[in-house]
Amino acid sequence: MDFYKYKCPVCNKQFKEGDDIVVCPECGTPHHRECYEQEEHCFYQDKHSQNFSFENDQPDSSDDFEADKESGTDNEVICKICGHPNDNTLFYCEHCGAPLLKDNQPKNDSVNGNNNVPPDMNGFPFGQNPQNGGIPFIAFDPMAGFKADEKMADNVTAGEVSKFVGKNTNYFMRVFGSILRTNKSRFSFVSAILPGAYMLYRKMYAIGIVISVIVVGLLAGTLIIQSTPEFTEAYNIYMDNYSAILQSGYSGANVGDLFAGMSSTNLLYFAVPYILGAIRFAIMLICGFRTNRMYFKHCIKKISSIKNYASSFDKESDEEAATTKSKINAQIENKGGVNLAIAVVATFVFLAIAYMPLFV
């Protein structure tokens, strides 16, 4: 049964994509879950003894419903989550921020006539079968509980942030929500492992370049120091002392004995690589803890900049205002998202420097 052409009998509101629907096992009447739990029984419970069937009792309104659903023109893409019509130049719904399946707008589903699901999936989203008396599987919320028009900052809505993020929207919207509500973020393991490269991937070019240069510089400095005769001499002294302590069974040994016989120059060359390594590790930890916060501020700053620039122009008509809004959405998507190419290059450079000693 295509529930989305009917209304909930309790609240009398039209069912739409994303609703949590409960179906009565006796008569097949669909309800919003919260409405069903509020009533604690089917709305038509008193008719069950009369062999009442919800589907048979409904007038045939499918033609009107399908006409409404297909009313989008060739220049529009209907969002599969909220049903909002979008310009076909957009990649994400301008109402809810969900990805738009532009190449997936079927006019007829041969299985059950449902025009509201992707093809080749047995008439249910993501290939799921109906469960619990026909309850459809509803996709996860890409907005992580935010409403599209909900403010996340001055002049910036959740829908705009979702468009800007692009990849992995659900994760970031949850993180941003946590930052706003509890001032708590999440540790980013990817940013900790590849700090500069990950920032470049998320188009935080300024801080990404700075972090990349620092990390690569620290790594290169460590390798340069370790290739000097002074470091080699200090390292050999350290290993000789360590072997002697092992042979003596640690009798009366202390940490200072490991560096016995080293000059001040030897000690300096021996310590510097470990100091640089500790600094690099500290930067990785800081990036892991701070990147999500920095990315949130980056999103807000970029979106605000785009909208402020657009608002500086006078709109003489509603048509011009609509065109400006469409351009803003396109700019948000173009400026946001990810840059995989530059992240791959940065990672390659880092790995090339790190493994260079193996080939020299």
Keywords:
single chain, 360 residues, mainly alpha, two-stranded antiparallel sheet, 6 strands
Would you count the extended β strands for me? Answer: 6
How many distinct helices? Answer: 12
Structural class: mainly alpha
What is the averaged pLDDT score? 78
Give the low-pLDDT segments. 61-72, 104-139
For this structure, the quaternary state is single chain
Global Rg: 30 Å
Strand content: under 5%
Broad shape: elongated
Question: Order of helices and strands, N to C?
Answer: EEHHHEEEEHHHHHHHHH
**Helical amount:** 40-55%
Task: Give the termini distance in whole angstroms.
Answer: 69 Å
The largest sheet is: 2 strands, antiparallel
| Physical arrangement of strands within the biggest beta sheet | 1-2
